[in-house]
Design brief:
Elements (H helix, E strand, L loop, with lengths): L1 E5 L5 E6 L24 H14 L2 E6 L8 E9 L11 E6 L7 H15 L3 E2 L6 E6 L2 E8 L2 E8 L6
Antiparallel strand pairs: 1-2, 3-9, 4-5, 6-7, 7-8, 8-9
């Protein structure tokens, strides 16, 4: 995908390119086995925001760049070489990492992220698998995942009144 970003005067500011697969052509059971919706439940976000308001927690939003490019693939996935790329007729690329557009890209990113967070001592919520918690020095830390964005909550435990 190619995109031209313009400034406020409609002048070219930047050229951008992103390599994206045609995931709609993937076949379940052949190209991928599982997918995963990497979106915190709406009710969970409402509850966390209400608790943050009531207990005066700090809230921070964070965006992860190139989120799907950080995880190796379980299956062999081959991709047609995109136009404008230097290639011989009939060549294809073997993907080593997930790319945008793959059906399993969200799941692969989640598995990588989950492993990292659990390695840091965070516990995954049983009610919403996109929420992780950890208590550090008497303070609660909550991470709610929404694709490539995190909402980070931190503050005193709920046993203390504001």
């Amino acid at each position: 995908m190619f995109k031209t970003k313009l400034d406020k005067d409609e002048q070219i500011k930047q050229y951008k390119a992103r390599l994206v697969t045609q995931g709609f052509l993937q076949i379940p059971g052949t190209d991928f086995n599982e997918t995963f919706a990497l979106v915190t439940h709406h009710q969970t976000l409402q509850t966390l925001l209400s608790l943050a308001n009531h207990y005066k927690w700090h809230i921070h939003q964070m965006d992860v760049k190139s989120v799907f490019l950080h995880r190796e693939l379980e299956n062999e996935i081959y991709m047609k070489i995109p136009p404008r790329a230097d290639a011989k007729e009939g060549q294809v690329w073997l993907l080593h990492k997930a790319l945008y557009g793959l059906k399993q890209a969200s799941r692969e990113w989640y598995l990588k992220l989950r492993g990292q967070l659990e390695g840091l001592g965070f516990k995954r919520s049983d009610a919403d698998h996109r929420v992780f918690t950890k208590i550090i020095d008497g303070k609660l830390f909550v991470i709610a995942i929404y694709i490539d964005n995190f909402l980070l909550f931190s503050g005193g435990l709920m046993t203390s009144k504001p």
